[in-house]
Write a structure and sequence with these properties.
Layout (H helix, E strand, L loop, with lengths): L8 H9 L28 E5 L5 H11 L10 H7 L12 E5 L2 E4 L4
Antiparallel strand pairs: 1-2, 2-3
């Protein structure tokens, strides 16, 4: 499996010439608003907070488990992190995690 942006037409052509085919499409979305959105109350027993240093491994396991039936293989942490939490554009303060007690139960990104 390789990850390349569609705009890199040379890389796309090279991979396709060697039998690679698209498996997953991902978008990075950005929405500009004129005001901060209202934040709803968390359900009882759920705590929501921004991503912190050290949260990566638990987020990785949650995502791999959630998409286990939709992916060709489970990614190792280092591979997953390089495309998510270690990207220069990753904004931990804008990346919420949901916990039930000490257990990570949700995240709106991956």
């Amino acid at each position: 499996m390789q990850t390349v942006p569609d705009a890199d037409t040379g890389a796309v052509a090279l991979l396709r010439a060697h039998g690679y085919r698209p498996l997953v499409t991902a978008w990075l979305l950005h929405h500009v608003t004129s005001a901060e959105p209202e934040v709803p109350e968390s359900p009882a027993g759920i705590t929501v907070r921004p991503f912190r240093a050290g949260d990566g491994p638990a987020a990785h396991v949650l995502v791999q488990d959630a998409f286990d039936d939709r992916q060709e293989r489970r990614q190792e942490y280092e591979e997953w992190a390089s495309h998510t939490v270690e990207r220069p554009a990753f904004a931990p303060e804008q990346s919420a995690l949901a916990f039930a007690g000490d257990g990570l139960v949700g995240l709106p990104w991956h």
